[in-house]
Amino acid sequence: MMIEVTDRTEEQAYGLFGLTVVSDCSLPFEHLGIDQDRAGHRVRLEHAPHLDASRVSREIGTWTSSGGLLAYGGWWFDIRLPPDERIRYAANGRRGPLPLFHVLERLALPIYAMAAGVSTLGLHAGGIVWNQEAWLLIASTGAGKSSTVYECIRRHGARALSDEMAVVSVDDLRVACGAPALRLERGPGSIPEAVEDGSIHPEIAKRWFRLDADHLASSGAPLRGIIHLRGTAPSKTPEFKWRRLQGSEALTTLLEQTFDFDSVPPDWRARRFQLASQLARSIPIYRATYARDPGGSPQHVDALVDAMGDAP
Question: Does 280 share its domain with 145?
Answer without folding.
Answer: yes
